[in-house]
Structure formats: structure tokens, C-alpha cells
């Protein structure tokens, strides 16, 4: 009798379980939606991982010993390679020509530059103590090659991120801020160049006007007039 009672209870539970399962059917997510969700999650994870690596890398550069070794590596290995594409139209790098404050020799260094106001702004991940920046600040002038054009620059000044970051796209602003870059070099275009171009253009117009005026007002000699 006990065994019969157990069978009755087991069958009742099975029926109840089957009823509960059928009353709450599972929703099947389409395959294409699952694939897109997987790709989105993978993209976010990869982007976040890369961003974290960059932030850690930039933060590490602020350590004095590591930064000094990295600066030497850039001078000897990375800069010569980057200079091959610096200043081109499709390159993110510009090239800055500066004169050594002690040697008097001209050097060329690749930098990242963006137009700002009457000149260009350059982020300083190693701060203003690097040689090329000290040369520009000491000399007061330099030549910037950007987008396959030469720009004579003057009046270098160190500015704060609140002013400099306006020149950069959103991702660059986020990256530089997270990386702790607090110094930017602002270069202004030389006024003498623009003024000289304006004076030359004005002189040329005056010469042409004087030429036409003198040609129209030359008096004719009556003896040379043919009847």
C-alpha cells in the first residue's frame, strides 16, 4: 500500500511539474540577435581593455626612470622611423624643425599637432623638459611641417588642458585626460610672414596700377603723328 501511495504522489508531482513547465514557456532569442549581442559585448570588452592598457602605459611614463629610458628609445629608434611619414597629408604626425640651444644645429622631431587659434597646439606626454621643447622655448621660433605645408612659428607658450583640448577630437581628449597629460605647447604663426605677403601683394598692385596710369597719360609728340 505504501508503494502504491508513493506512485500516486510521484505521478501527481510529475503532472504538476509538467503543468508548470507548460505554463511558463521559454522565449527563444533569434540567432542573429544573439550574434549581434555577442559582437557588441566583445567590442566593448576589447575597447575597454585597450583603453586600460593605454592609460596604464601613459601613467607609467610619468615615472622618472622609465620615462628617461623611453625618451632615449624614441630619439634613437622610434623618431627616425616616424619622421618618414611625419608632415604628410594622411599622417597624424607633424614634423617640427628646431635649433639646438647649445649646439646651434637644426633638428627635426615628429609631434602630434592640431590647429588652434592662430597656430598649432602640441601635447607634451613627457612634459616641457624634453630637449626639442626646451629648444623651441629657448629659441622662440621654429618651423612646423603639417599637412605637407611649412608654417614658420613663434611665441611658444605652455597652456593648460582646458584650453588645449578644444583642438582635439573626443577620443583624443578622453585619452589625454585619462593619461594625465597636463602640459601642451601652443605655437603661433609668425606675423612677419603674413605682413610681408600682404606688403608684397599691395606693392605688386600699385606697380600694375602705375604702369597702366603712366601708359594712358603719356603725351603724344605731334611730329610723330601720321596724317
Structure in a nutshell:
The chain has 227 residues and is an alpha+beta fold. It has a domain at 60-198: Pnp Oxidase, Chain A, CATH 2.30.110.
Characterization of the model:
The chain has helices at residues 2-23, 31-61, 64-82, 131-139, 161-164, 170-178, 191-217; strands at 94-99, 106-111, 114-116, 119-123, 141-146, 149-159, 184-189. By secondary structure, the protein is α+β, with helices and mostly antiparallel strands. It has a domain at 60-198: Electron Transport, Fmn-binding Protein, Chain A (Pnp Oxidase, Chain A, Roll), CATH 2.30.110.10. The protein is elongated and about 75 Å long. The model is unreliable at 211-220 (pLDDT under 50).
CATH architecture of the domain at 60-198: Roll
Kindly report the CATH topology of the domain at 60-198: Pnp Oxidase, Chain A
Proportion in helices: 40-55%
Could you give the distance between the termini? 152 Å
Tally the helices: what do you get? 7
For the biggest sheet, the summary is:
7 strands, antiparallel
Report strand order across the widest sheet: 2-1-5-6-7-4-3
Overall shape = elongated
**Uncertain runs with pLDDT below 50, 5 residues or more?**
211-220
Averaged pLDDT: 77
For this entry, give a set of tags.
single chain; 227 residues; alpha+beta; Pnp Oxidase, Chain A; seven-stranded antiparallel sheet; 53% helix; 19% strand
Amino acid at each position: 500500500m505504501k508503494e502504491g501511495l508513493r506512485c500516486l504522489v510521484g505521478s501527481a508531482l510529475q503532472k504538476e511539474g509538467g503543468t508548470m513547465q507548460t505554463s511558463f514557456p521559454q522565449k527563444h532569442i533569434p540567432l542573429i540577435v544573439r550574434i549581434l549581442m555577442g559582437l557588441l559585448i566583445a567590442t566593448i570588452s576589447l575597447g575597454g581593455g585597450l583603453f586600460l592598457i593605454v592609460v596604464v602605459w601613459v601613467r607609467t611614463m610619468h615615472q622618472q626612470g622609465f620615462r628617461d629610458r623611453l625618451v632615449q628609445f624614441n630619439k634613437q629608434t622610434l623618431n627616425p622611423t616616424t619622421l618618414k611619414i611625419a608632415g604628410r597629408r594622411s599622417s597624424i604626425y607633424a614634423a617640427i624643425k628646431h635649433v639646438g640651444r647649445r649646439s646651434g644645429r637644426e633638428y627635426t622631431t615628429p609631434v602630434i599637432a592640431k590647429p588652434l587659434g592662430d597656430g598649432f597646439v602640441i601635447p607634451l606626454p613627457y612634459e616641457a623638459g624634453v630637449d626639442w621643447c626646451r629648444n623651441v622655448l629657448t629659441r622662440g621660433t621654429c618651423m612646423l611641417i603639417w599637412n605637407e605645408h611649412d608654417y614658420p612659428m613663434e611665441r611658444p607658450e605652455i597652456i593648460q588642458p582646458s584650453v588645449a583640448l578644444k583642438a582635439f577630437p573626443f577620443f583624443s581628449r578622453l585619452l589625454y585626460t585619462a593619461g594625465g597629460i597636463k602640459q601642451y605647447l601652443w605655437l603661433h604663426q609668425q606675423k612677419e610672414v603674413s605682413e610681408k605677403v600682404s606688403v608684397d601683394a599691395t606693392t605688386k598692385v600699385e606697380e600694375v596700377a602705375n604702369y597702366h596710369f603712366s601708359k594712358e597719360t603719356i603725351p603724344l609728340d605731334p611730329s610723330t603723328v601720321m596724317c
